[in-house]
Amino acid sequence: MKLDQFVLKAHIRFQFDAQDKTDFFKKMVKDISVFHEDFEEERLLELFYLREETMSTGIGNGIAIPHVMYEKCESQEIFVYRLAKPIDFAALDKKPVELIFVMVGAPSPSNIINLQILAKLALMMKHPEFLDKLLSAESEDALFEVLIHYD
């Protein structure tokens, strides 16, 4: 499975401005809705908040992977947000987050694809050289290139 099946260059945001976790989710949902006119922003926001209540999706090393299943989504999509400044995300290592991979997936009985994508992202984030390249990318294009070439 290759990530370029799920993340488009148009889905990458560089220097995304968010004051805190709540502000990030509100702005991110508006951003995603631009690609999907039928997405209900309030419902999508509610799903992300419910997911975060269960457990923070801040996995450590400055990375978060918020993910939800949304009934109006027809496929799996990844949106990538490189923040203008790190924010508290209640991450496992207590460090602020500066790179966020947002997954919105189509509900399915098995959720196999969603689990495979999550596992792949989590595994990729454990490689220091890859993480360094991601965090030092200086544009949306550079971030996209790092993602697809590492994959």
Structural overview:
There is one protein chain. This protein has helices spanning 21-35, 41-54, 112-124, 128-136, 140-150, and strands at residues 7-16, 58-60, 63-64, 67-69, 77-87, 97-105. The N and C termini lie close together (9 Å). It has a single domain, classed as Mannitol-specific EII, Chain A (3-Layer(aba) Sandwich), CATH 3.40.930. It is built from five helices and six strands. Strands 1, 2, 3, 4, 5 and 6 form a six-stranded mixed β-sheet that branches. Helix 1 crosses helix 2 (41-54) and helix 4 packs antiparallel against helix 5 (140-150). The chain is of the alpha/beta class. The chain is globular and about 35 Å long.
What characteristics describe this protein?
151 residues, alpha/beta, Mannitol-specific EII, Chain A, six-stranded mixed sheet, 5 helices, 6 strands
Radius of gyration: 14 Å
Helix tally? 5
SSE order in H/E notation?
Answer: EHHEEEEEHHH
CATH topology label: Mannitol-specific EII, Chain A
Q: Which CATH class applies here?
A: Alpha Beta
The average pLDDT is 91
Category from helices, strands and their pairing: alpha/beta
Q: Strand tally, please?
A: 6
CA distance, first residue to last residue: 9 Å
The overall number of domains is 1
Basic shape: globular
CATH fourth-tier homologous superfamily: Mannitol-specific EII, Chain A
- Approximate helicity band: 40-55%
Give a short account of the largest sheet.
6 strands, mixed
Percent of residues in β-strands: 25-35%
State the assembly state of the protein chains: single chain
